[in-house]
């Protein structure tokens, strides 16, 4: 396939998932209206918070499904939408835990409801608490409905149970990752590189890559070995992706990523970069700046210089490449058809292409 | 049946549900251990937070099921356990929203994790936030697993879908009630009696009475009319129960209820009593005391006197009786067998017996 075809396939998949989610939210809003306009408005806010994303997880489900010979793309879109809803639930609650009120440049659920309250003259601390309270409710609704989208896929019997098991495992593992992330934030000693990798694997890679790929493969009726191989690919590429994401959050080109390279440093995000740097004496010079809410662009430059001189940037890049290579090795498993390699090779390339 | 038999039936049902939940938590802890001891400890805390309750919702499921002729009590216990897990999830998150760290006299999930942090020397605001963060994760785990307990009941096909629909509706409606409760707390004008009744119906009565009773009836294979009649019974007795609960929270005998009669007044809980009282000029005299964290026993007495003189106590008692009577009317529906009336008549009597 040439690039034009790849984009066309990707667009088609996104549209199919969008259609499933649109029907789900339309149905939910209709039900909610009977319980009052404010409840319907909450569902609208939740729907807005699932829009605008890249539908990354659903596209993983569908890519696995189609490359392994599946043809009922509507069923795959439903399973994909289940993972998208799980993703929404997890980020809405993650934002509550991180006390974030903004996502992708706009207000998230907490932010929307905080802003309504402040506009009505409610003092900020109460308005923030109200925003976070509503976000807990909204996340619960997204979470509770993820299973139901799998039910609506038409998968039945053992197949449905296996898909539920995979979704269950994805959520189970992500909760563990979130717990460890919370624990790192209050612990005296900084996390090690291994701890960060494990946390990122659990918190994000599992439900973003491994789970969706396994679900797509299972839905396609793939053999156990193929499901396992795609799962292993997902686990490793997911970790690589997270490390690259952390690298771009500090060293990226804002024009490329659309993301400031000061934010992660300002919030003191715990990444492989940090875990590596803190073991070097040079880090002491910038330790006080890291995580400072008043961090300036000049401060960020100083921290970046230290991350270079300690070799932390190089280390993280090598680690990302290492995991991407392991992902590729999983992909060359003969249990997988060439179509799967053709489908996912660009994913490996894009991760590798984003590190120097 | 005499009282002794009733207690024996109730104990048997509770044990059956306890067994299902024990197996579920044992399984989850085993899975969690592989992801690290702190995650396993979180599951233990969650299990502890589901223990010690009256298994009220499961017992409703089983009472409906057995009185309508169902004989697979293990299946009913699984469906009941699903509602218990939903209940756990909702109260764990409700406590986060209310910033409560205690339940039934002991630390809840937030409280347990706050206390671990303060013991480790973490400052209180950070420790509290950590407690609440972990409670969000714990509630998510309970919520996400409720469906799965229905799956494990052995119910399949359309039956399973109908049970999922009922559980779904219970959660859907409770989220609306929680939203309105949050909205009342920041709104300038106090809620009306009708708004309070509607909020309590949505937030608690639906998933505590109506849903469990419908689920038990559906699992027993009851006809639509019987399911609807039990649902109507549940809706009305659930509202009556909530109003009585609110009455006992202010006027109850602490030796009987095991609950302080100052707590609700101190936290300014929005109840039918309050909604009625605020429409009377006498309320102005105690308005400043209501909801004060420093409320004394003498202040509470003054508020109680006003609630008597405004007729608010009498009004709430009459309203509770009215809903209990409506519940009884639903129960005399000929679509229901005598066994159902025998089963639930004591529930009506116990609600009526708790008001003067």
What does this structure look like?
Chains A, B: This is Polyprenyl synthetase family protein. Two copies of one chain form a homodimer. With 356 residues, chain A is mainly alpha-helical. In chain A, 76% of the residues lie in helices and 1% in strands. In chain A, strand 1 and strand 2 (106-107) form a beta hairpin. In chain A, helix 3 packs across helix 8, helix 8 packs across helix 9 (224-251) and helix 14 (312-331) packs antiparallel against helix 15 (338-353). Chain A is globular and about 60 Å long. Chains A and B meet through helix 1, helix 2, helix 4, helix 6 and helix 7 of A and helix 1, helix 2, helix 4, helix 6 and helix 7 of B.
Notable traits:
homodimer, mainly alpha, two-stranded antiparallel ribbon, 15 helices, 76% helix, globular, metal-binding (chains A, B), Polyprenyl synthetase family protein (chains A, B), Isoprenoid_synthase_dom_sf (chains A, B)
Layout of strands and helices, then pairs:
The structure is a homodimer of 356-residue chains.
Chain A (H helix, E strand, L loop, with lengths): L2 H31 L3 H14 L5 H12 L5 H25 L4 E2 L2 E2 L1 H11 L4 H28 L5 H30 L6 H27 L4 H28 L2 H4 L5 H5 L4 H6 L19 H13 L2 H20 L6 H16 L3
């Amino acid at each position: 396939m040439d690039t034009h075809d790849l984009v066309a396939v990707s667009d088609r998949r996104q549209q199919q998932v969008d259609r499933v989610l649109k029907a789900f939210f339309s149905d939910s809003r209709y039900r909610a209206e009977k319980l009052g306009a404010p409840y319907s408005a909450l569902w609208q806010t939740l729907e807005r918070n699932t829009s605008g994303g890249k539908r990354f997880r659903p596209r993983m489900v569908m890519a696995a499904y189609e490359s392994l010979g599946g043809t009922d793309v509507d069923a795959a879109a439903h399973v994909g939408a289940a993972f998208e809803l799980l993703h929404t639930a997890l980020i809405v609650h993650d934002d509550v835990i991180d006390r974030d009120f903004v996502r992708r440049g706009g207000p998230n659920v907490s932010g929307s409801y905080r802003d309504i309250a402040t506009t009505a003259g409610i003092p900020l601390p109460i308005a923030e608490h109200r925003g976070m309270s509503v976000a807990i409710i909204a996340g619960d609704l997204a979470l509770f409905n993820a299973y139901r989208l799998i039910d609506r896929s038409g998968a039945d019997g053992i197949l449905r149970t296996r898909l539920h098991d995979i979704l269950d495992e994805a959520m189970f593992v992500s909760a563990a990752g979130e717990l460890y992330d919370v624990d790192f934030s209050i612990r005296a000693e900084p996390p090690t590189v291994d701890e960060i990798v494990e946390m990122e694997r659990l918190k994000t890679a599992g439900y973003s890559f491994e789970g969706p790929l396994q679900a797509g493969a299972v839905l396609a009726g793939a053999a156990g070995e193929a499901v396992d191989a795609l799962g292993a690919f997902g686990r490793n590429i997911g970790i690589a992706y997270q490390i690259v994401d952390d690298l771009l959050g500090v060293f990226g080109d804002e024009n490329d990523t659309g993301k400031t390279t000061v934010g992660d440093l300002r919030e003191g995000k715990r990444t492989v970069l940090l875990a590596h740097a803190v073991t070097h004496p040079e880090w002491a010079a910038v330790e006080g700046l890291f995580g400072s809410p008043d961090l300036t662009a000049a401060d960020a430059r100083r921290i970046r210089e230290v991350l270079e001189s300690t070799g932390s940037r190089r280390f993280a890049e090598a680690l990302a490449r290492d995991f991407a290579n392991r992902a590729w090795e999983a992909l060359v498993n003969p249990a997988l058809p060439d179509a799967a390699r053709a489908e996912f090779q660009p994913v490996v390339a894009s991760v590798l292409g984003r590190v120097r």
